[in-house]
Amino acid sequence: MCIIGRSELLKLISKYKCIHPFNELLMDGDGYVLSVKEDVLLNYLEHKNIISHEIVFTPPDLVAHLTAKSRYGRLGLSFLNAAKVHSGFVGRLALELVNLNNTREPIMIKKGDPFMHIEFITRHGNPSPYFGPYMFQYMNDDE
């Protein structure tokens, strides 16, 4: 397995529309930075899902890995869920967070804020595309 580099990621996005909408300014190293779909206020010890604005498609021969931008960790947010995106998945991505900041203050994440890195990774062997209940999550009929 290896991470898809910038040039290959751009080819994938052009061919498959793996990230929509796509803004080349949000390319970051070998990945892309997804933004937040809507404002989210997390009070101390509260946990919520943060949803990506972008719709992501993971081609069958790839998987994807998510990491949150470190600035949110420094604010005191902790991430509760696994950050793997199965091959074949289509939908908005969600990271579950809990506010554990030392000052017990609420943390606001604003719509459009750059929030999570996504990197696509090649897989070896036959794919086993995702067909579970979260396919097309957080999408409406027009999307």
Question: What do these coordinates show?
Answer:
With 143 residues, this protein is mostly beta strands. It has a single domain, classed as Deoxyuridine triphosphatase (dUTPase) (Deoxyuridine 5'-Triphosphate Nucleotidohydrolase, Chain A). The protein is built from two helices and eleven strands, in the order αββββββαβββββ. It has a five-stranded antiparallel β-sheet. Strands 1-5-9-7 form a four-stranded antiparallel β-sheet. The longest helix is centred in the N-terminal third of the chain and has 11 residues. The model has no long low-confidence stretch (mean pLDDT 91).
Task: Summarize the topology.
Layout (H helix, E strand, L loop, with lengths): L5 H11 L2 E2 L6 E2 L2 E5 L4 E3 L4 E11 L4 E7 L1 H6 L1 E3 L4 E2 L4 E10 L7 E3 L4 E9 L21
What brief labels describe this structure?
143 residues, globular, Deoxyuridine 5'-Triphosphate Nucleotidohydrolase, Chain A, 5-stranded antiparallel sheet, single chain, mainly beta, 12% helix, 4-stranded antiparallel sheet
Assess the beta-strand content as a share of residues: 35-45%
CATH architecture: Distorted Sandwich
Indicate the radius of gyration in whole angstroms.
15 Å
**Biggest sheet details:** 5 strands, antiparallel
Q: Tell me the series of helices and strands, N- to C-terminal.
A: HEEEEEEHEEEEE
For the largest sheet, list the strands in their spatial order.
2-3-11-6-8
Report the principal-axis shape. globular
- Provide mean pLDDT, rounded: 91
Which segments are poorly predicted (pLDDT under 50) over 5 or more consecutive residues? none
The number of distinct β-strands equals: 11
Residues in helix, %:
10-25%
Output the number of helix runs.
2
Query: For the record, what CATH class applies?
Result: Mainly Beta
- Span between termini: 31 Å
CATH superfamily (homologous) name: Deoxyuridine triphosphatase (dUTPase)
Quickly give the structural class: mainly beta
How many structural domains can be distinguished in the coordinates?
1
